[in-house]
Amino acid sequence: MRLLISAALTTLTATSSLAAEAVISVDIPQLNVAEYHKPYVAMWIESADGGKITNLAVWYDVKHKDNEGTKWLKDMRQWWRRTGRELTMPADGLSSPTRAPGTHQLTFNSAAKPLDGLTPGSYQLVIEAAREVGGRELLRVPFEWPPKAPATAQAKGESELGAVTLKLTP
Amino acid sequence: MTKHLKKLALLAASLSLLAVPAQAHRTWLLPSATVLSGTDAWVTVDAAVSNDLFYFEHHPLQLDGLSIIGPDGKAVTPENVGKGRYRSTFDVKLAEPGTYKVMVLNNGVFASYKLDGQAKRWRGKADQIATAIPANATDVKISESRGRIESFVTSGKPSTDTLKPTGTGLELVPVTHPNNLVVGEKATFRLVLDGQPAAGVAVEIVPGGIRYRDKLNDTKVTTDESGTFSVTWPGPGFYWMSASVRDDKSTIKNAQRRSSYAATVEVLPQ
Description:
A: five-stranded mixed β-sheet, four-stranded antiparallel β-sheet, 2 helices, globular, B: mainly beta
C-alpha cells in the first residue's frame, strides 16, 4: 500500500515538473461609443494546417434568459465555422460571461484539459472578438508546442482587441 | 417572320406576369440570414421577380408552389405569409438544428394554336392539356415549363439530408455545403436533370448589389460530364445562380420542355 502511494506521488511530481504552462493575456480596449456592449470572445488553438482545433475559452452573454445569448455566437464567424457550430453552449470549463474592458489573463497547464491533448508541433493561438452593434476582429499568434525555452509571442489588434500576449514556460 | 417574332415577344411578356418567368427577369428567394446560432432561430424570406439583384422592383413571386423541408425531412409550414406590391414574404422557424431547404416550384404548360384562322393561347397544368385544345386546332405549339427556385438556411451544425435531389426537373446537388461558403474558397455543385447528370449546361452566377455598380460582374461556367461545376467566390454577399435546359423530353406529346433552376446562396467573409 505504501509502495503504491509513493509510486503515485512520484508520478504526480514527475508530471508537474514536466508540465509546460501557457499564459494568455488579452486586452479588451475601452471604446468611446454611444452604445457599448462587452464583446463576445472566442479563443482556440489551431494546428498549422487548420485541421485540429482545441477550444480554450468562449466569453458570451451566458446570463441572458433562456440561453438567448447564443443567438450571436455565429458573429464570431471564423470560430463558428471551425468549431462553434459543433458545440453545445454553455459548455463546462469553456464558456463564461463576457468581460469588461481591461487586461484579462488565462493560464493553461499542459497536464490538464484542454492542453493535455496537444501533440508536439506548430500551432496558432486564434482569438476572435465580435461586439454587438460594433465590429469584429481576429488575431493569430503562431507558436511551437511544447516550448523548449520560455517564449513570448504577441499580436496587436486595431479595433475590437488590444494586445494579445502568449507566454510559454517549459 | 417579323410577325412571328412579335408574337414570341408578346408571349414572353405575358409569361413574365405568370409564375413562370421570362428570361429577362430573375426570380429569387432572399433569406434574412443563412447561418444562425441560438435556440430560437427564425429567418424571414423575401421572394420576388426583378431585373436587378436583390431589389424589389417588378413583381412579387407567387408562392403557390412554396415548400420548406427541415433537417428531419419533414415539411415546415411558413408563417406570416404576405404579398406586397413588389415582393412576397414569409417567415421560417428553425425549430431544429440543421439545414433547411426553401423552394418554390413552378410547373406549367403553355400552348398556342390556330382555330378557324384565329390565333389562340392557353396556359395551365400538364394534366389539363389533353382536353384544353380543340381537336380541329392547327399550328399547335406546346411548351412545358418546370421551374425550381431555392435557398438554404442552417441553424447550428449544417446537415445534408435536405440537400438530396428529388429526381424531378433541374436540381442542384451541393458537393460543398451551401451554408459553408467563404470568400476565396472553391465551392463545387452538381446539376442533375431528372436525377441524371446535366452535362454541358451553362450556369450563370451573379453577385447581388447590382444597383451600386456599372458591370454585372457575372460568372459563366459550364457543367462537365458529371454535371459538376465549381466557383471561387470573389467577394462576400448573396449570389444568384441559375441554369436552364431545353429539350423535347416532355411527357406531353409533341411538346418542348424547359427545366430551370435558380438558387440564392450567401458567401461570408473569411
